[in-house]
Design brief:
With 169 residues, the protein is mainly α. The chain is 43% helix and 0% strand.
């Protein structure tokens, strides 16, 4: 598990509440987000109506369902599956750095959605930069010898002794 980065946590936390248009509450990062209500509201702000049912109170299982709804909505929004945290990472405070990275990924993905005009999080994502080359440009290097074509001043693998040899005693 990686170390917590309080600066990154603060940046993500402030971004969430800027998007929601609310002042950031006092309290620890994981305590404020633990029940999943803020996360569900965040996804509904990014994609209106994507999470229909939000449990504001109830059993631990019901509150964990909020986190699962957030995760499904984030995946649909475009956050890669491998960047989405596990429910227990947040609810049981097992891996808060992963939660922060997931939310940072969500903030980054908002840049790919032109309908989102709110604050951005993280560096600007790269745009597609497709290049086209002529056949002459693609063939320009064919006359060159590279090191894999035998021009290595007599070096060989003889005597390498690595693979396939057994130990001799």
């Amino acid at each position: 598990m990686s170390k917590r980065n309080k600066e990154l946590e603060s940046e993500v936390f402030n971004w969430i509440f800027q998007v929601l248009g609310e002042p950031a509450p006092k309290g620890e990062f994981e305590d404020v987000l633990r029940d999943g209500v803020v996360l569900c509201n965040l996804m509904n702000k990014l994609t209106p109506g994507c999470i229909k049912k939000i449990q504001t109170k109830g059993t631990n299982f019901q509150l964990m369902e909020n986190i699962q709804r957030f995760q499904a909505a984030a995946k649909n929004y475009g956050v890669p599956q491998e960047e989405i945290f596990q429910t227990a990472d947040l609810f049981e405070r097992r891996n808060i750095p992963q939660v922060v990275l997931s939310l940072f990924a969500l903030g980054r993905i908002t840049q790919k959605h032109p309908e989102f005009t709110g604050p951005s999080l993280g560096p600007k994502m790269a745009d597609k930069n497709e290049r086209t080359f002529t056949d002459a440009q693609l063939r320009a290097h064919e006359g060159e010898l590279n090191l894999q074509m035998g021009y290595n001043k007599g070096a060989s693998q003889s005597g390498h002794g690595g693979f396939g040899n057994t130990r001799h005693m």
